[in-house]
Amino acid sequence: MPHRPLRLALLGCGTVGSEVVRQLRARHDDLAARIGAPLELAGIAVRRPELRRDVDVDPTLFTTDAAGLVGREDLDIVVEVMGGVEPARSLLLTAMSRGASVVTANKALLAEDGATIYEAADIYGVDVYFEAAVAGGIPLIRPLRESLAGDTVQRILGIVNGTTNYILTRMDEEGVTFADALAEATELGYAEADPSADLDGLDAAAKAAILASLAFHTRVTIGDVHREGIAGLSAAAVSAARDMGYVVKLLAICERTARGIGVRVHPAMIPRTHPLAGVRDAYNAVFVECDAAGQLMFYGRGAGGPPTASAVLGDIVAVGRNRVRGGIGTGESAYADLDVRPIGETITRYHVNLDVADRAGVLAQVATVFARHNVSIQTVRQIGRGDDAQLAVMTHTAPDAALAATVDDLRDLDVVRAVASVLRVEGEEGA
Amino acid sequence: MPHRPLRLALLGCGTVGSEVVRQLRARHDDLAARIGAPLELAGIAVRRPELRRDVDVDPTLFTTDAAGLVGREDLDIVVEVMGGVEPARSLLLTAMSRGASVVTANKALLAEDGATIYEAADIYGVDVYFEAAVAGGIPLIRPLRESLAGDTVQRILGIVNGTTNYILTRMDEEGVTFADALAEATELGYAEADPSADLDGLDAAAKAAILASLAFHTRVTIGDVHREGIAGLSAAAVSAARDMGYVVKLLAICERTARGIGVRVHPAMIPRTHPLAGVRDAYNAVFVECDAAGQLMFYGRGAGGPPTASAVLGDIVAVGRNRVRGGIGTGESAYADLDVRPIGETITRYHVNLDVADRAGVLAQVATVFARHNVSIQTVRQIGRGDDAQLAVMTHTAPDAALAATVDDLRDLDVVRAVASVLRVEGEEGA
């Protein structure tokens, strides 16, 4: 006997929402076969129903009354692609309280207050799926939540923001400045009108919080994430990294540390032989190091309407199947409750470029500062002479607090005209 | 109230099985927290219980009576890592009929007769999970079965056999012969004592059948897979590919075609700019092209005890969670029932190296043969002179049958001393 149709409501109908609607229509029979029941669109909540949208759908489905829509008792699935913490959170809580399962692409909400959402799902016995919240079309959440549930994740290094990766790729490959690369990204539509959330690492930090929560079975919010953006990055620093066999990437890093976990977003130098080094333009990739599975990488398009809609549709099928078969999928796993440690405890390496006076004794003074903080130097190279004299210092690993204090003290040295750049080094074997 | 322990039986205790036992012990509390119930090992079926195994486990758990073990009524999960079609199939059918869910790493069984296993799971309302059957520790099955369930997969290109990828990497990077690379792989333990299943593409073909089944929602068995191995590959062909900017890889290819799907395993030239080109040594990677999600890649260790055990443990957690929460996971999806088309219909490009006589009119005769089969030539290069004269021909795309017939006719030409190598070209943009 065919299953009754599953009733689905959509919150938001922008780029991703429109694509979801299009696919729901175009692939209706396919999706019904995969789920075991047809999907029926019960309503679409939007702020401006009069807006022209490129979807062929019954106009009476549009409503501005999102609260009224999710308050209905007959919904099976609520799909939220509106973004932002409120009103999305309240709407999803209402939907779950009425018995609907939830599919959301909302990284801001999950990174800010995922706990409230997961707890409600548990209380009401419904599903919360969110594959689209991190790295768009790349299947990543489900592998972390389920495939690797039998393993121990040690570290995640992710390129999870396409805008900044596009900019960094241009800077690396063409030697252009940050400003020029940003202008190009804006022109091509890779950067938004206000790109600050991308450039400041805010977008990547939200994703890092979600990935860390899943990998370490611990609640991590965006406030726990140490964050540095790429706006201050000079063409010279990128080019110096290139000359040394490294490429600069904005990384989201989640790792187990001696006393808990560390979660951070910052530009870093990675060796050109690292699998992440070849991830170019607006592509995303997430590199995962596990005890048993070893090194894994997931690669693909991290944003855009169709890839994100693919992730949303996959979740709709999963949640739909659960409805048809009875039962729910994986819920929150936060049993480990590890301590999120401050950035100062992170063990890392620094590469520091110093503009220095070209006279005898400079190296001795600089070396003394490193030694005072117990930071061991691996290599020093002098580049140029006279007013262009630079020292490029690569350290051994040390606590970030010691490295940061070293850099602060270097700024105070008379012989140091300027600290031209400071970059952490990541992704090295055995480092 | 804590859930009762879940009772688990293990079939087989070789490299993977021993690692599973080790992890079940070492990570008992962690796994219990993730599942919501502790796991209890009820028995381990082995052929030779007296064999020394590197696991610390109650020796009374070992039994030679596998049928008796799976015939018990009190098992929740049966984990099968013995391999081979029989007796594995009979044992799993018995286990499911008694109500146990199944976790298996058995690619041979699933590629040969997965339908019987999936149907039994459906009849008895139990789970069959098999993440470890393809590409070891790389989460791949779950992404295909679930994450991409809302998308349409057009093509999969996979490097799914570590032994052959190691050999091909050595041939490409060091210019060594197949025989020397194989000897090295054997010495390092990458190749088994009898490596024929790897070299002939049999191992990859089993994985291709499983991937195609999942990607296209269609039953595909290993008998449906067109298969060519790498044993005949010459150092000269690999080196010629290298000079042209290509690398030779043994690919498992699953693709939608005009009239159904095609599934094949053979060595192929791929451009060095393709993400798969950088997958070296014994690493595996699977490249997936979807309508909405675009290009995705999954990368990691495809074999070995710990990576495979990671996949098995992940499945144990998933199946265990389903037991605790009630309900089952994704079952077989074969609704699309697409036709598996013969290799002759595949649209592809050939690169052909011919040893030719060095005299006027050779190119005309060769070109006439291509034209007779409606195969259009993209480039021809003459290499060397006299007795070393070669023609390197790159075709445009054409049906494989026409290309194969062309090569057959070329062999009959007097001016062609030998067809030195024939390789398909894959992974080109817009090709």
UniProtKB/TrEMBL annotation, chains A, B:
Binding sites annotated in the UniProt record for NADPH: K107
GO biological process: methionine biosynthetic process; threonine biosynthetic process
PROSITE patterns in the cross-refs: ACT, HOMOSER_DHGENASE
Residue stretches in coiled coil: none
Domain ACT: 351-427
Active site: K207
Official protein name in the record: Homoserine dehydrogenase
Organism: Acidothermus cellulolyticus (strain ATCC 43068 / DSM 8971 / 11B)
